[in-house]
Amino acid sequence: MSSESYKVDSNNIPDASNLKIGIVVSRWNHSITDNLLKGSIALLESKNTAPENIQIIYVPGSFELVYGCRKMQKKGVDVVIAIGSVIRGETKHFDFICNATANGIKDLNISGNCPVIFCVLTDDNIQQSIDRSGGKFGNKGKEAAIAAIQMASI
Predict the structure, then answer these.
(1) Which of 42, 54, 130, 144 could serve as a FRET partner for 150 with CA atoms 20 to 30 Å apart?
(2) Residue 142 Cα to chain centre, angstroms
(3) What is the helix, strand, coil percentage profile of the chain, to 5?
């Protein structure tokens, strides 16, 4: 299935007024992660999530998202959104961080108290990140918030 074949109409997303949402945000590539966070919050608020029901934790980088999400799960939220941005460089560091972060978040979904939504951009260059954090491909933070509401409703 291509990404174009699955479009979510935000009008069909359930009301989120009773949900407690945790968001863990990487400070690395903060101009990108700040935009993703804004997209998530805007969508959540449009679905009636009260600001006091949105808890945010900042961590240094995407690798630290796993620990931050585990701590957030213990705060009694219904769902956690993990927001990060890793941009490919000249070394294998990109691969190690992306794999470890994805696997860590997968492990939290298997053994954790609530779902964790993977909103970590793993782009080849800064332009791809800009395009996906409010640019020509929309805001993946908004899409993560939609997924969060859907998963918390299961």
Answers:
(1) 130
(2) 9
(3) 50, 20, 30
- Its pTM stands at 0.92
**Catalytic residue check, 93:** yes
The answer to whether 40 and 96 are in contact (CB under 8 A) is no
131 occurs within a structural domain = yes
Residue 12 lies in a domain: no
Q: Where are the alpha helices (DSSP H) in 12-139?
A: 30-46, 65-73, 93-111, 126-132
Catalytic residue among 8, 93, 106, 125: 93
> Would 122 be classed as within a structural domain?
yes
Tens digit of pLDDT at every position of the chain (154 positions): 444 545 666 678 888 889 999 999 999 999 999 999 999 999 999 999 999 999 999 999 999 999 999 999 999 999 999 999 999 988 888 889 999 999 999 999 998 789 999 999 999 999 999 999 989 999 999 999 999 999 999 8
Record the tokens describing residue 95, joined without a space.
Answer: 């691969």
Tokens of 59: 């961590």
Range of the domain at 125: 30-152
Q: List the CATH number of the domain containing 55.
A: 3.40.50.960
Provide the token pair at 135.
Answer: 């640019």
